[in-house]
Amino acid sequence: MSGADPRYARQQILPEVGATGQARLRAAHVLVVGAGGLGCPALPLLAGAGVGHITLVDPDVVSESNLHRQTLYREDQVGRPKVEAAARALRALNSACRVRPVMQALSPANVAALSEGAAVVLDCADSFAASYILSDHCLDAGVPLISASALGFEGYAGGFCGGAPSLRAIFPDLPDRAATCATAGVLGPVVGTLGAIQAQMALAVLLGLTPGPLGQMVTLELRSYRFGGFRFDGAPEPEDPPLRFIAPQDIRPEDFTVELRDHTEAPVPAAPHAHRLSVADFGPHGPRPAPGRRAVLCCRSGLRSWQAARRLQAVWDGPITLVAMGDTPEPSERLP
Question: Is 181 considered catalytic here?
Fold first, then answer.
């Protein structure tokens, strides 16, 4: 990919890009977490623009129900790892782009290693836990984070960390209920639009464009075709110690560990010593750890853990951490 490569002529002609900008893209390493509805439009736009190195992280396989919005994949790839199918498509699009597929779930245990050397991180996972894990790490490491979320006909994309406020500055608390694309639905063009905005924001960071996307929120609602947004450069970080996620393997035997999933959802608890409780069990007369112990609250997405933690914080001032165990693949979605 030399400065005279005709592949990039239509973007290099922009004074904001030029040969210098193209060289920046060629030298850049971008971490993309999530190869689903947001990642599928963002990834080919980054590779097509000439980003030199992409690390792609996703633990899932392609399923038929993905195809209406995850247009990077084909019917004959159902059952195959998303990261492998996506990497193959990106290499076919631009053989000069080095793609490293990582079929793992993002966790506090691997976020530092996966993001090492990345100039910008894209949060395309549309997961509460992944978003806060990435934001906490990127804030500490000073790495720009481009995060997006979509549901139904609406969503947002924003630029966080890297000198801008973190995700927690805008969203200090999780929502009361956990609606997802699987439970509430989403139209493909909605996630497609947001993924494209993420790619634009990432390229703007890499090229050093001004005004920059860090500290900028873009919102859309495509039922009535409304776009909006605002700057949040001065948003303060939460004063209270944040409720942070830990990896399941970091649960200690001495922890007061709570499994918030029932036996049907999780026949095997997060830890052998975990107590089976619900969010409603916590409160003024509910359980609390002994002095000096750490509370570890486990559920699927992190939402119930967050809710239980808030109720526990009202009556107990000890350390609390959260664990998002993630989804258990259905037998039909497992690799052959």
Answer: yes
